[in-house]
Amino acid sequence: MSTDPKRWVAGHVAALPKSGIRDFFELVAKMKGQDVISLGVGEPDFVTPWHVREAAIFALERGKTYYTSNLGMIELRRAISTYVAEHFSVSYRPEDQVIVTVGVSEAIDLALRAFCNPGDTVMFHQPCYVSYSPSVALVHAQGIAVPTYAKDNFALTAEALRAAWKPGAKILMLNLPCNPTGGTCSLEQLTKIAEFCREKDLLVLSDEIYSELTFDGVHTSIASLPGMAERTIFLHGFSKAFAMTGWRIGYACGPAALIDAMMKVHQYTMLCASIVAQEAALEALTRGWDSVLKMREQYHRRRDLIVRRFNEIGLTCHSPRGSFYAFPEIKSTGLTEKEFSFGLLEKEKVAVVPGAAFGENGIGHVRACFATSYDQIIEACNRTERFVQGLKK
Ligand code: PLP
Q1: What are the residue boundaries of the Aminotransferase class I/classII large domain, all occurrences included (predicted)?
Q2: Could you tell me the distance, in angstroms and rounded to a whole number, from the CA of residue 308 to the centre of ligand 1?
Q3: Helix, strand, coil % (nearest 5) of the chain?
Q4: Has residue 20 got a pLDDT over 70?
Q5: pLDDT tens across 26-54, in order?
Q6: 134-183 pLDDT, tens per residue?
């Protein structure tokens, strides 16, 4: 009989590919204390605004240490409902159309578990957030990656969707603005995508976690387009806009019957999000907007800087319309994205993520997160320039 502990690991978990960025971050961690500039992790460099942290402390002082309703505190659901109506023009009832989750991560997991039967098909545009494909695999569903391209500023098109679609496809995962490309869609493109979803009867999981970090144009939620609210789960959270990654708090809104299905899974797994994080989130949504605007202004300046510098260095870089990621092409260096990332880290101590981590369509690119200070970005770009010039010698 085998004594290998791996014999107990479920087949579909064993089959998950090793994260394309794990090796890389292990190396970054080993280089701690060596003046590494990290453009790696997708995390704000700001601390959660003080009044939000204070609201959490105050909640603890008042003895708020218990479970909340499975759906989340009603006061927070009301605030979410008001925010979504005002910013995205979609109305959700706080009583049964909003669920508070442990980050958008849990909301994605709940949605896939609630809506996928084994063998169902889920479409997503790619390059995409590293978790999408594994999350689909974890519910025994099949993923279809729909390519987006640098020449289109990584906007998803209805034509690409149609070309990739297969009979029986059930769900479309959208992430606009997108991690890692910063791509979004114009209203015209989004309208065509919506038409396609109605034609093919697709349920949309719309991850809009970066919507508040839109620099060019106005963000539109697909849920706000005609006939879409009834087939869309709107996913959002506090990690990015409010610099609250460590609080683990997000939410989903959608038709009551679908939120109820997600709630069924949530009540037996997570039970509820942390009450302290919920109190903080309530404060953030009701009084945190000045901080969001200030942070967005900083990200905007940094975006303009990093895009300009990458292009000057000869790494063609489109201007991401939102998010805090630049996704330059590194093909001109003659290196693969892995060679480029490891070389840049070893020689110049700048960490960027190899584009292949975000799927096949990320090949030939690296992701540089500009959620770090302006001065650090200047220095990281100078080092990158030295690295690229060194390759020519
Ligand atoms: N969705 C996207 C597109 C992300 O980039 C991330 C985090 O990087 C998440 C979801 C996870 O967010 P949360 O911290 O709310 O779980």
Answers
A1: 35-382
A2: 27
A3: 50, 15, 40
A4: no
A5: 778 888 788 999 998 888 889 999 999 99
A6: 999 999 999 999 999 999 999 999 999 999 999 999 999 999 999 999 99
Torsion 154-242-98-132 (CA) sign? positive
- Ligand 1, closest atom to CA 106? 16
Rounded to whole angstroms, how far apart are CA atoms 326 and 361?
15
Task: Decide: pTM greater than 0.90.
Answer: yes
Mean pLDDT, the chain, as a whole number?
95
**pLDDT number for residue 113:** 98
Distance of CA 51 to the CA centre of its chain: 25
CA–centroid distance, 103 to ligand 1, in Å, is 7
Strands (E), the chain: 37-38, 98-101, 121-126, 142-147, 169-175, 203-207, 232-237, 250-253, 325-326, 350-351, 353-354, 366-369
Distance (Å) of CA 282 to CA 86, 99, 207: 16, 14, 20
- Kindly list the strands in the beta sheet with 325-326, ordered across the sheet, starting from the edge strand earlier in the chain: 325-326, 366-369, 353-354
> ipTM strictly over 0.95?
yes
Residue found by looking up tokens 């402390």 in the block: 57
- Within 6 Å (CB) of ligand 1, which residues are found? 42, 103-105, 129, 175, 179, 207, 209, 237, 239, 245, 250
Q: Are strands 350-351 and 37-38 parallel, antiparallel or unpaired?
A: parallel
- C-alpha to C-alpha distance for 366 and 315, rounded to whole angstroms: 10
Q: What's the CA-to-centroid distance between 209 and ligand 1, angstroms? A: 7
Q: What is the pLDDT of residues 238-250, one digit of tens each?
A: 999 999 999 999 9
Question: Residue 379 burial by CB count (10 A; 0-12/13-18/19+): exposed, middle or buried?
Answer: middle
Residue nearest to atom 2 of ligand 1 (CA): 129
List Cβ neighbours of 328 (8 Å cut-off, separation of 6 or more): 310, 315, 316, 317, 365, 366, 368
Q: Domains plus CATH for the chain? A: 9-48+290-388 (3.90.1150.10), 50-287 (3.40.640.10)
